[in-house]
Design brief:
The protein is 25% helix and 43% strand. It is α+β, with helices and mostly antiparallel strands and 161 residues long. Strands 1-7-6-5-4-3-2 form a seven-stranded antiparallel beta sheet, covered by helices on one side.
């Protein structure tokens, strides 16, 4: 059996889909909710659109790194997604497929159901990925990201409500 490549979770937030989308699509603010991301710098001004690139800043314990990301979906009030395709310690210089992050916004009774999904885009053999994952997180990236997603969604709900 291969490794789990996609995990997701959801939360209902008492705001409109557009309000939730605007918060999440402002990637400079993601560090307020994410347990790993500390923020981002966007290469252009204004609302993000497909093709917008940004550098994400991340931290896990004492380790810090930067990722180069490209927005792949920017449908206000519906979906926001981006691919992580570059990595580096200070500057994301190394081209590498890492992950795709997606956020879906669905109007439901009481507000908006926000679903966050992580997809492992690494094209590594399963044993190599498993060894790296254990070293980097102590578990599989799927299990690790499941916890990160839960914490992000809980913090997003707390702030937006």
């Amino acid at each position: 059996m291969g490794r789990e490549l996609t995990v997701s979770d959801h939360v209902t937030i008492a705001v409109s889909p557009l309000v939730a989308w605007e918060a999440v699509s402002d990637v400079t603010q993601m560090g307020r909710w994410s347990p790993e991301n500390t923020g981002a710098s966007v290469d252009t001004e204004g609302e993000v659109s497909v093709g917008t690139t940004f550098v994400g800043r991340n931290r896990r314990g004492p380790v810090r790194w930067a990722t180069g990301c490209t927005v792949t979906t920017a449908a206000p009030g519906e979906r926001f997604a981006f691919q992580v395709r570059r990595y580096g310690l200070r500057t994301p210089r190394v081209p590498v497929r890492i992950a795709t992050w997606a956020y879906d916004f669905e109007p439901v009774e009481g507000g908006t159901r926000v679903t966050e999904t992580w997809t492992d885009d690494r094209r590594w053999p399963d044993p190599v990925a498993a060894a790296f994952d254990r070293l980097a997180t102590g578990t599989s990236f799927a299990q690790f990201q499941q916890g990160n997603i839960r914490r992000t969604l809980d913090r997003l709900k707390l702030e937006l409500e």
